[in-house]
Amino acid sequence: MRGGHALSASGAGAQGSAEFLTFRLGAEEYGIDILRVQEIRSFEEPTRIANSLPFIKGVVNLRGVIVPVVDLRIKLGCALVEYNSFTVVIVLNVKGRVVGAVVDSVSDVLELQRENIKPAPDMNSQVDTAYITGIASVGERMLILMDIEALMSSPDMGLLDGNF
Known about the structure:
Number of helices: 4
Structural class: mainly beta
């Protein structure tokens, strides 16, 4: 993996486990490094920015900080789901920048042992697994572990180059 991923999990590496915030996008459940999560907020319609990419929902004012909000369902090509009372925004701190991610719902925080995390399978070139760090089975649940920092700071997101 890239050096950034190793750094993001370095705090938990000595114990052989890491904590992940789990959330749902449609039928799938994802996990992200809990250390990237600043807070979880109920969804409020952001102010739309003209000519922004389709997955950029707009911006919200979070205690005086203008925060871009990304709908992960659109970004990851999931079927669209209507916003409801379970829809939340996970507020992330990515490379010193605050970014919001819209998800269907937040499940819980799980501590996963490193040996229970399997590498993402090789897929055909049409499936982008660049931001998937692994797959974990927790009982009957299958978690897709995501490098949220790499995803949010990728050039195609346009979030960390001063656009907002």
